[in-house]
Amino acid sequence: MFASLVLVLLIAAIAWIGASVGLAPLFGVVLPYAAVLVFIGGMIWRMTYWAKSPVPFCIPTTGGQEQSLDFIKQAKIDCPSTTWGVVKRMFTEVFLFRSLFRNTSAEIVENDPVNKGPRLIYYSSLWLWAFALIFHYSVLVIFIRHFRFFMEPVPAPITWVETIDGIMQVGSPRFYWTGGLALVALLFLLARRVWNYRLRYISLANDYFPLWLLLGIVCSGLCLRYFDKTEISQVKIYLMGLTHFAPVSAAGINGLFFIHLTLVCVLLMYFPFSKLAHMPGVFFSPTRNMANNSRRIRHINPWNPPKQYFTYPEYEDAYRDAMAEAGLPLEKQPEKAAE
Amino acid sequence: MYNAKAVIIGIVIFVAIFSSPFWTGWIGQDYTKTGVVLPAGEKECIEDTEFMRAQHMRLLDEWRDQALREENRVYESALNGKKWVISLQNTCLKCHSNYSEFCEKCHVANSVYPYCWTCHIIPTEGKR
User: Fold this and answer.
1) SS3 A80
2) A282 touches chain B (CB under 8 A)
């Protein structure tokens, strides 16, 4: 955990120092282009890699009654048997995190009055679901809001999103709820790894690093907006230069902006090779994208070699004379077969 | 590749979404300068240019609280200690009197719409 934190701080420090000693072209031009190329190229590689992997078995996760006799009610979303059912299940999974909603926590209660002794109790645990949902939707809104830096004129829908996001009109510049909520949700996701000792035991650097990285991005972004500001017109001129492939000098932009930008670039480059690739990964999960119809449709393992069949007529053709000699019953007698 | 058709559609959607900062920028026009016109004939602002460009919104927010809640109408410049009257209408807009050539230039381009003008009057000098 601390190694990941130190790594993120180190990246931030390198960006800060780099930008202040005149390496702004490196951190402001070369790195963003490289990051975007690595991100898009890496994700395409990752997706084709997954698409090329055969699925040997029909393994959808079943969360309810499968399709059976007509009078038995099927759990249509949790155990879909058609492609349309899979689409519905995928929709609820992607937009509502339905499977996280089923999350439970197990706890052993000593001296339970029902058992008159220790008893294992499962509780519905919705914290992870709630904060994961808050985080992902906040990031979506933040992503959409950033298009004010990429487009001129700014389209009206982006202004509407900003109006709703800052509807409480707190402070100047207006406080955006999604920024604060993303920070709170990330802190929860980190705290749960730290304080839940079972989770802490299985948490690795590749769990902590993305959290610290995202925290670094969100914190530097919030700082740039509310505390140590920079002139956003200049930032927009610079970003429009990047997207129009005519980079302009980034001189005069606050060093904190380069920390924000560099951390985003690191995130983009890290994305395809990490657990964050669950973004397209959910669509490639056989446990989610297959219909539970294995009793109706045979699933052929694609890596099975072509079968060498030896059918009975072929067998009889091969051994007919010997079989007739031994007096075994034949479908075609030797004189018939000779015709 | 299995399910090639669906996968290729997915990859195209992915690339379209995540390259959007690059292609959406071409829909409108480029943005290479703010086009702000500074008031002619005025030499000094209450603070230096860099501070005003980055921090004016915080300053205005503080001024509002100072004037309306603290009844303090005197602001001392951190630049040279000069005293200014805390007033948007009478101090800021005295020089920055052309809304469409000053405020609007950056605010519209960056989609920043503060609620100054729910109480104050938009300066309409010049073409509006």
Assistant:
1) coil
2) no
